[in-house]
Design a protein that fits this description.
This protein is of the alpha+beta class and 163 residues long. The chain is 29% helix and 29% strand. The protein is built from 5 helices and 7 strands; from the N terminus they run E-E-E-E-H-H-H-E-H-E-H-E. The protein has helices spanning 40-53, 58-61, 75-87, 110-121, 139-142; strands at 2-14, 19-21, 24-26, 31-32, 91-100, 128-133, 146-156. The strands form 2 sheets. A 5-stranded mixed β-sheet has the order 4-1-7-5-6. Strands 2-3 form a two-stranded antiparallel sheet. The radius of gyration is 15 Å and the shape is globular. 39% of the residues are buried.
């Protein structure tokens, strides 16, 4: 069975936090605010995978009310979700990532993010696409107040997951 999943995440940019996107530290004067490391790429990817499996969303599995996830590395969320997919006899076929940020400029780091996602997912990099869009100075992203990400995944799975 082929299934599609879609995930989205947005976090505010604040002083005093590191900026991590797709598991990669990005040089910038601000980072993303959140309970965990606030990596919008890995959060949106985790959400997309959970959605494709019919398992709800990231908040169902890793709630921001749980102190164990305070400042957690979002790679943990992704690894746990990939484990669920494998246990269900599934595999990730490809993904398409769109980052939305006015600042910093992400064009120079798209390839690094793509390579890291391929490594984290054990995929050929040709099956991972990363795009970056600005907010055209409109709204919270366009004013440089936040960064957002949207991810679409295609999975193959023996049967819908019942976890």
């Amino acid at each position: 069975m082929i299934r599609i999943g879609s995930g989205h995440d947005t976090h505010r940019l604040v002083e005093g936090r590191p900026l991590i996107l797709g598991g990669i530290p990005i040089s910038h004067s601000k980072g993303l605010y959140g309970h965990s490391d606030a990596d919008v790429v890995l959060h949106a990817l985790t959400d997309a995978l959970l959605g494709a499996m019919g398992l709800g969303d990231i908040g169902d599995h890793f709630p921001d009310t749980d102190p164990q996830w305070k400042n957690a590395n979002s790679q943990l969320f992704l690894a746990d979700t990939l484990s669920k997919l494998q246990r269900a006899g599934g595999r990730l076929l490809n993904l398409d990532v769109t980052l939305f940020a006015q600042e910093p400029k992400l064009g120079p780091v798209k390839g690094v993010i793509r390579e890291n996602l391929a490594k984290l997912l054990n995929l050929d990099p040709r099956l991972v696409n990363v795009k970056a869009k600005t907010g055209e100075k409109v709204g919270h992203i366009g004013r440089g107040e936040a960064i957002g990400c949207h991810v679409v995944v295609l999975i193959e799975q023996d049967a819908p997951n019942s976890e």
